[in-house]
Structure formats: C-alpha cells, structure tokens
Sequence to fold (358 residues):
Amino acid sequence: MPLNKQEEDLVRKAFSAKRLKKRQYFLQQGDVCKHFCFIVSGAMRQYSIDEKGIEHVVQLGIENWWMGDRESIVMLTPSKYNIDAWENCELLTISHADTICLLDQIPSVRKMLQIMEERNSIANQKRLNSTISLAADSRYADFVREYPDFLQRFPLHIIASYLGITKETLSRVRRGTIL
Amino acid sequence: MPLNKQEEDLVRKAFSAKRLKKRQYFLQQGDVCKHFCFIVSGAMRQYSIDEKGIEHVVQLGIENWWMGDRESIVMLTPSKYNIDAWENCELLTISHADTICLLDQIPSVRKMLQIMEERNSIANQKRLNSTISLAADSRYADFVREYPDFLQRFPLHIIASYLGITKETLSRVRRGTIL
DNA sequence: CGAAAATTTGACATGACTCAACTGGAGTGG
DNA sequence: CCACTCCAGTTGAGTCATGTCAAATTTTCG
Fold:
C-alpha cells in the first residue's frame, strides 16, 4: 500500500483507536451506527435478537476484519443488530464521512476498499448459497473449510447460530452423521 | 449522472448491447464469467444446481439490476452458477477490465458503483438475516414486502427456490398459516 | 474449590420435504 | 375448434431433519 507522507497523514487522522473489553458493545440495537471498525486484535460478533430473545449471528470477525452495520451507517437508520466484543479488542474506527473522504482523495485506499468489497460480496454469496442449498451437516463442513480459524475463537453455540441451526443440532452433526 | 462528452464516450465504448431470448444462458456453470450485465429490460435468474439436479436460485433481477458472478469474474475461476433469461432481455454488458478502467477514470461512475455496492451489500445482509432467523412464512412475508415486483415476474416455484423452500411449502404458506 | 458457561444427551414435537396425483391454464398443431 | 402437451400450482399422506425442552456432563476460570 504505497502512501506518501501527506496521504499517510490523512489516513492517520481519519482513524481513532478504541479498546473494547469482552462483552462490551460496539453497537447496540436501536442506535444508529456511526463508525465502521477494523479489528486490530480480538474477536467480535454481530447479531440480531428475535421476539423470543434468541440471538442470530449474522457476522463474525477477528483480526483484519471489518465490522459495522452497513445499512444503518449508510441510511442513517437505527440498527437491527448488536455488535459486541467476544474477546478483548483493539479497534481502529472511522466515520462514514471520513471513509468517503479517504476514498475520494487516495487512490490506493480506494483500491483496497474495492478489493475488500469484492471479497465481502463473494463471501456473502457463498454463504447465502450454502444456506439455501445445503443441509446442516454440509453447511458445517463448508464452514470448517472456509473459516477454520473461527472454530478456535468462538464457542460452538455461536457458530451454530451463524450457521442458522441450534447448538444441539450442531453438537449432533459434529458427532458424526445424525443417528 | 453528470458526464462530459469525453466521459460519455468512454462509457459508451465500454458497454456492448446484447439480447437474450427466454431460457437462453448468459453464463453456464463451469464457464468463467467474463462480463457483468445491466438489465435494460427483461428478467433474469442466477442459480446453482446440486447433485440431485435441484436448482437453487441465488439471485433474481429485472430492469435496472446488475447480474454476473462476482466470484468467477474477479478470481477468474469457473462459475458454480448458471445465469439465464427468464423473459426476453435487453442487456448492456461490460468486461471486468473495462469496469476497472471506468472506475479509475470517471469519478461519477465510481460514485454510482459505490452506491450500487452499498445497496447490494445491505440487501444481502437482510436476506441472510432473514434466512437464518425466520421460518418459511415470515421469510415469504419479508420477500413480498421487499420485492413486490418479483411476484409479478417470476413463477412461484422460482420464488420458493429463492427463499430456500420447496414450491409445495410456499403454496401452503400462501394459503394461510400451515394447517 | 465453586460458579458460570459450554457442550452433550435423550425423548419428543413439528416444520418442511418427498412423492405422487390432480387441476387448470397457455400454447400448438392438426 | 378440439385434442394434446407443457408448465405452474395445489393437495394429501407419510417421512425425515431439525427444533424444543430439560437434564446431565464437562470445561473454564476467578
């Protein structure tokens, strides 16, 4: 990422460092999301809570991932999601306005964000396809192949929720074919 | 979209017009996707086919939507999907290279694509959340609210597939609460 | 050690799928 | 205009995958 002095300066000014302790919120349901964050270290989750109080994990992230609620930040609407730290986290946060600023002014940032977008969009498509096409066991197999790291960092009930199944079903799937 | 003469020229050169008759492929599973397309008129679907020969619709599009396999076009890998015309279509196609060219050279194109990206990413997130959190009936309700147009353009068995349920289940859901 | 969190297990309920049959258009061709 | 076929949609009966609930177990960590 070749940045000259002046560009580097702009980038530094746009980001703020932030720390979260385990279980602390980055975003709470009902609030408008003001910042995106880049995870320097730690692990986070984004989830909705339904009428029955059940959490549904829409996104997991660890080092080098970005987190934030696109819909809320762009539309300026209250978020339907919570984002919190699953491990203690070091974050770099940036507002939407500053993001646009950087995008407009620094070509290499633009390239980078574009690539991120692409990856994100590809990953979403895969997950969607897997969710509508496959049974629980194959979805878990896919997950293990795509994100082996996550297995080490998140407990199984969170992974189950990410896969759209219950922790009991995941437990049975892991044991071997359901009996 | 304010474009000067020269920019307009670049844009025109980048796109090619293309017509597809109903059922004709825009992309076939196994081929590398070379172009994205903008739907001027008509309706298209993108779907995978599993081992049992069942089609799983990952994307539907009508006028003013874009279609293409991001993963294949960016990674240059054979696509896992088919994209075909559900109605006769008029398309504008553009290669990845030309897209990047336009992005780099014309700020207003960049803005536009960026907004498209945002919308797409938001829509994906919603669909994903709906798919992992909700039962068939609520998912259908969501769909009707978000995409009433699609109901007019695609038969129910395609919508069922998009929702990740069978046509029989959709039929029962539409009838009223499952009996 | 003791409490809280994570995981597993079993019995049972149920939503969704499968399969096969049937209905009702919308063409198409004789 | 009718017979014929193709496609979309509906229905019913039986089955299966996954969810629910409650309890037992294991692990983690202060």
About this structure: The beta strands of chain B are 16-20, 25-27, 35-41, 43-49, 55-62, 66-67, 82-85, 89-95. Chain B touches chain A at residues 48, 50, 56-58, 70-71, 74-75, 80, 103-104, 107, 110, 114, 117-118, 120-122, 124-129, 131-133, 161-164 (CB under 8 Å).
